Amino acid sequence: NERIVERDIVFVVDTSGSMAGEKIEQARNALKHCVANLNDGDRFNIVRFSSDVYPWKDGLVPVKDLREAAKSWIDRFQAAGSTDIMGALREALRYPKDPARPFVIVFMTDGKPTIGETIESKEILSRLAKACTDGVRIFTWGVGYDVDTQLLDGIAESSRGVSEYVRPEEDIAVKISSFWGKAGKPILSDLKIEVVEGPRLR
Prior knowledge:
Order of helices and strands: EHEEEHHEHEHEH
Strand content: 15-25%
Helix content: 25-40%
Low-confidence stretches: none
Number of strands: 7
Radius of gyration: 17 Å
Structural class: alpha/beta
Largest sheet: 7 strands, mixed
Distance between the termini: 32 Å
Mean pLDDT: 87
């Protein structure tokens, strides 16, 4: 509570046609909750994707000045098109990384890649493994029953993130609270212990 770590966060949200109905509403509510609970010192951006990729801003922007504008943009999400997962994640990963600030991607989808430079899950994981070597963490959200759980679990595991899943009938508020308890307020990360001559460690 005395010092909250300032972070850079990119929310990546699937707005393809299969998200129509209750799932797009769940995604909107989850995303607005996350934006509302960002810290004033954080920087963020939102990337929605379907057949193409649509970033909200050109880069990371301060939370304090643009929180309400972001929620208004989220309210206008409409579900249409295919699912370019690789293109969306590539967009999120292109933003500059500050070594002094944790860089987090929150990725939400309801399905499998169907369009883009690659739709092969193994290839997506291989490319992300190479791109997430500079401290990037990806937290994945699967919405509904048709999601590629192996892909989402693999994305989260390879970047030291966490994967969560929401069924259509579930109370998303409970899931959001659980998720944000893990990702919302980082304290320490990348700890190292150096052992030199001295007492034995047990």
